[in-house]
Amino acid sequence: MPQKVISIRPESRSPGAKAPRYDGGALTDTLGRSMRDLRISVTDRCNFRCVYCMPREVFDANYTFLPHAAILSFEEIARLARVFVGLGVKKIRLTGGEPLLRKDLPRLIGMLVPLGVDLTLTTNGSTLVKHARALKDAGLERLTVSLDSLDEATFRAMNDADFPVAKVLDGIAAAADAGFSQLKINMVVKRGANDHQVVEAARHWRDSGHILRFIEYMDVGSTNGWRMDDVIPSAEVVRRIAAAFPLVAVEANYTGEVAERWRYRDGAGEIGVISSVTQAFCRDCNRMRLSTEGSLFTCLFAQQGHDLKALLREGGSDDDIRDRIAAVWRLRDDRYSEIRTLQTAPKPKVEMSYIGG
Ligand code: SAM
């Protein structure tokens, strides 16, 4: 049974405590990892109640989402993003919650495009028909859409919002029409829920020009009742697909890329598998997450964040913010997935909808 949600909030900062001045030197953490990717959660709200992410028993009508005043404004997000880019961030992913629920999101995209980074967004696709064109016009180049099954009953059971497959497929088509040429389609695979759909999904997306990526079901947060038995290892996913459509391994695009790539031998495109549970990639992890309310997390499985919003709102300069981020990164020693055990898995962790998936 899912436990009641454990509210984890940013760590408090002693007033006036300043991070040491950043010396401009190579910015690596205690394990020698550089900072490259930043995920920004623009809302903690979602219109789905995916059973593995925001179970309805917990995220119900009584659940308190962040009030508007607590969440970062677009101006605050853009300012922080600029500082991160100055420290070496090359890729920014907007996420949530469901990012397209955040009003006027294309305006934020327009503010981030001039930073010149690889800018992308992850969505459940439910409102893409309405938003795809404006996102593209604002300058977004890449898009990831989550879709856990093409089977109607399976999908509705997983999103627990009675949301139909067809509407997400329409959203994907609208995105393609708007000029998003190669979408990534994310499918979280949970044993007994949708694993019988793995080969069907591969069949559907082969030859589409889009890249289907299978994600191992993870023990993020504290509410999804995760059990190791529910994880289908990526190796099993690859085995099942290869039995139907022979696959060949492909080199990673860059160090720290989370998805392991495979292409169809017959030239019908490629798939990716993200094995965060069975083959942890902490060693190369170069990601940080900025929560909806401006707390910085150095690991998806973190128990504590670092409050940047207070620094912003108390009048900290860009240099102060830079110093704090650099100091946080230099002290980073997270490697949760490498040391995960059945004992660590149930520890209270921040929810993915809050920190950003
Ligand atoms: N609402 C957006 C969406 O649906 O893509 C963005 C946020 S969502 C948290 C980001 C991704 O995290 C989705 O692909 C979702 O399926 C995945 N995710 C959520 N909980 C997960 C879990 N326990 N294990 C693996 N992936 C998970």
Portion in strands: 15-25%
Distance between the termini: 22 Å
> Quick one: biggest sheet?
12 strands, mixed
Shape: globular
Approximate helicity band? 25-40%
Sheet/helix structural class: alpha/beta
Give the overall average pLDDT: 92
Return the string of H and E elements: EHEHEHEHHEHEHEEEEEEHHHH
Cα-based radius of gyration, to the nearest Å: 20 Å
Number of strands: 12
- Widest sheet: strand ordering: 7-8-9-6-5-4-3-2-1-10-11-12
What small molecules are bound in this structure?
S-adenosylmethionine
Would you write up a description of this structure?
There is one protein chain. By secondary structure, the chain is an alpha/beta fold. Helix content is 28%, strand content 16%. It contains eleven helices and twelve strands. It has helices spanning 74-86, 105-112, 128-138, 152-159, 165-178, 198-205, 234-244, 309-313, 318-330, 336-339, 352-355, and strands spanning 37-41, 91-95, 118-123, 142-146, 184-189, 211-216, 247-250, 260-264, 270-274, 287-290, 295-297, 306-307. Strands 7-8-9-6-5-4-3-2-1-10-11-12 form a twelve-stranded mixed β-sheet. The longest helix is centred in the middle third of the chain and has 14 residues, at 165-178. The two termini are 22 Å apart. The structure holds S-adenosylmethionine. Residues 46, 52-53, 95-96, 98, 122-124, 146, 186, 188, 215, 217-218, 220, 224, 352-353, 357 line the site of S-adenosylmethionine (SAM).
